[in-house]
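Hey, resending since the last one bounced:
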Amino acid sequence: MKIYLPVFSYSASCKTFDLNTEHNPGIGGTQHVTVLLASRLARAKPQWNIYLVNYSPINILNASQNLKQVSFASLEHFCQFLSSPAETGSRAIITALLLETCKLAELKLISNRVFCWLHHPFHFKHKLRKADFLAYINQGSYQHSSNCRFYPRCIVIQNIFSPANKANIESSIETRQDFSLRLVHLGALVPDKGLLHIAKQWKRIKKLYPNAQLNIIGSALTYNSWNDVHQLVPANPSYANQILKYIPESDIAEGRCKFHGNLGLEKDKIIESSHLALQNPTGIRESFGAATFECMALGTPVIASGDYGMHEAMQYFPELTIQRTSQLAGIIREACSDTNRYKELQCRSLAVAKLFSLNSEAATWKWIRVLQTEKREITADSIIYPGFNSSTLKAITKLHYRRVNGVLRTSIKSATKYCLRKTR
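The structure tokens again:
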């Protein structure tokens, strides 16, 4: 059996993947997980041929013999190849963001050979639904609950997650106000990841902890962006200027706020030495929150939203979950108010990361089972509504409201595009 996993990432071609450690070399989480899934499938099924598809070969170390690579100039060229009679028995796992770039007619030619890997909650695209792929894959329970009424054969399979080397949790907090609190944020510097919301609370955090330091790992270049980035903040200049309204340039010059850009293995030392990680404070568009698990795996407790896909990780940390971004400074103070509680949070972080790491093996075999199933026999997974920290009824009502609102917006967009085409 031949399985294709398109990456189509220029940034991935510039990195080296060691499949023994499975560590993220400094690219987007989706691209990294695609490589990990290809490796796991190749190891679990040595009789299969697994192909990573990219513009150019990716530098991979310690790969299985049946993990191969093919290059195409574009996804369109790959789709033409996949639709050929010679590939009748082949299967491909392609992210929704890549599939969205193709025309519906092209998608229908390959629909019975493709699993659509949905990218975020409420990922409503009429074109993807009309293509009628083999199945539509979600990474978490919230994402699945949000998408399953829109797409047929909706399935939830956890993302492959591999923790870093054994964490060192010798770091401890001090309850005095002049304590040198070290904070970290890990993620691409794009609006959806929420650094601007964290920046807006930086003044309040400094008021509580005058010696606090914030390390920011990531840049706009994480996601194939070759546009110019700001000199001080490695993000789109307009977004960087918004951040600089709340993080003074003097704090950057003095090293109180450090922008490290994209890092590979070297980021572990920064995360491990940090007392707390500040991740997506709204959760919007998150399906799994891989960066959150990376921090937890190094024993660094995470403060973040428990909404959208962030629910997967933060359901185990109600005391660190924020409902509003204005709560950020207060939750930092609470987390650092007791040394024993902080040590408990460190150990719980390691345990949760290990849980998801162990479940990755089950996820691999669920992929294998689904890949071998005929389309007519694929059935949707049951819906498990996330409970959050409010009543189940309130959570379900909120989810249904967002779903209806999302479907309405995407329908209006589709109708507008159709009318514009007709008037040309």
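The chain has two domains: 2-162+358-377, 182-356.

Sorry for the duplicate.
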